[in-house]
Amino acid sequence: MRAQPEQQAPPVQRLRIRYAKRGRLRFTSHRDFSRAFERAIFRARLPMAYSSGFNPHPRISYAGASPTGAASEAEYVEIGLAETVDPAAIQALLDEALPDGLDLLEVVESPGGSLADLLQGSHWLIDLAADPDACVAAVATFLATDAVLVERMTKKGLREFDCRSAVISLSAAPHGEGARLDMVLRHAVPAVRPDDVLSGLASVAGLPSSGAPLLTRLAQGPLDEATGEIGDPLATRG
User: Does residue 171 have a pLDDT over 90?
Assistant: First the structure.
């Protein structure tokens, strides 16, 4: 009879981490980041807590990862430690071990509860090579439409869904040689991404654009439905 695996002790400390994806590192996928993050943990020699079972894994929980190709100032991960450590020391060690462009911004002790449940909405900027007046008109048409159906390939095949219902606010203004969209999205099921909204703008208003848009997530956290503001999940109890 196969011997039972040793049971690991639960974490004595949990830390929540906010990090940024900048520059060329915006093209890292969630899998790329998780590999880089785990290598950084080992290089920094953090006293990680591990899961039980025949193949123990370090206690790492990812939440709300941005799409590949999007820059972000508000990515989150939670780690469990086997010892109590000063969060500032953990931030310095991990930031030193991570590549430039994956930058740690804040590390705090977890108050408990679910980090994922606090990530209810996101604030996005989208820079487009498009005529600003055309963008303003397209946004007005989009917001005046009750439902905007778009299609996206998912793991379960091609799926059609309404992208309009997830948009809390959306505006357009001139920016550089093109236009900038400022948008707050509610996190929904299925998830509505910024590129889905761009598809919706093209569908209902024929918004033209050349080149790849630059997507940047400025914030992610608790959503105030009344004001459309995004709160700080590291300052909120789970």
Answer: yes
The domain that contains 137 carries what CATH number?
Answer: 3.30.70
> In terms of DSSP H, where are the helices of the chain?
30-44, 87-97, 132-143, 194-205
Strand pairing class (60-63; 71-81) = antiparallel
pTM: 0.91
Could you read off the pLDDT of 131-164 as tens digits, one per residue? 999 999 999 999 999 999 999 887 778 889 999 9
The reply to whether 71 and 107 lie within a common domain is yes
CA angle 22–26–31, rounded 5-degree value: 125
CATH number at residue 72: 3.30.70.580
Same domain, 152 and 199: yes
Q: Are 95 and 104 in contact (CB under 8 A)?
A: yes
